[in-house]
Amino acid sequence: MEGEAYEKKNCTKDIGVSVEEGILHADLTPRWIQPTTFGEKNGVRTERSQALARLFQQARISYQIVPDMHCWQLCHLALVVPLADGYYETKEPLNAGKDRLLMHRTALQIRKNLLCLKEAGYPLSPKKLNLLCYMPVGIFERGLAWIYQSSFGHTFMYAHAMKAPDEMHRLHNEFYAYIDKKKENGQ
């Protein structure tokens, strides 16, 4: 697409990227799933973060400034680590969404991760993640199955998980080590 039609299609989306056979493939996620997220380490909105926000606004890329990036990143890992694990736990990663037991386990693990963060005193960020803690598991697993089988799932979940297994395994180990340490310290 060119010009105005391209701008209208992409004005409320965020960037997702993969490189296949030397070709860069970029696509944008819907804002309601995940706008580009950033913030200062101390949570204060600075001129630097405001300047970055203006750049995203001019580029018509959705964004959000969060007050606690550490918390947001932990919540992001609580979600994406089990999503990637789902692909690695099956012999047919491309068909992971068709495995109902796998979707059930993935839903339960995401819920467990989010509840562990809440118990450790982290408010879920974004707040909509709270829905995943209380949504009936059957609905949650069917939603996951749909996402895994969708073009969105293929582009943003499957492609990344298959191209970055070392990164995802490291994030898995670091996230669960962090959670275990918090539990040991009574947080």
Give the helix/strand layout.
Layout: H1 3-10, E1 13-20, E2 23-30, E3 36-38, H2 47-58, E4 63-65, H3 69-88, H4 100-119, H5 130-134, H6 137-149, H7 151-163, H8 165-184
Parallel strand pairs: 3-4
Antiparallel strand pairs: 1-2
Helix pairs in contact: 3-4, 3-7, 3-8, 4-6, 6-7
Fill in the keyword field for this structure.
single chain; mainly alpha; two-stranded antiparallel sheet; two-stranded parallel sheet; 4 strands
Would you mind describing this structure in some detail?
- It is a single chain.
- The chain has about 190 residues and is mainly alpha-helical.
- The N terminus is likely disordered.
- α4 crosses α6.
- Helices cover about 60% and strands about 10% of the residues.
- It folds into two domains: about 60 residues, no CATH class; about 120 residues, no CATH class.
- The strands form two sheets. A two-stranded antiparallel sheet has the order 1-2.
Mean pLDDT: 86
How do the strands line up in the largest sheet?
Answer: 1-2
The percent range for strand residues is 5-15%
The secondary structure category is mainly alpha
Shape verdict: globular
User: Can you write the helix and strand succession as a string?
Assistant: HEEEHEHHHHHH
Major beta-sheet overview: 2 strands, antiparallel
Radius of gyration: 18 Å
Helical percentage? 55-70%
Count of spatially separate domains: 2
Helix run count: 8
**Annotation, overall tally of beta strands:** 4
The poorly predicted ranges are: 1-15
Q: Roughly how many Å apart are the termini?
A: 50 Å
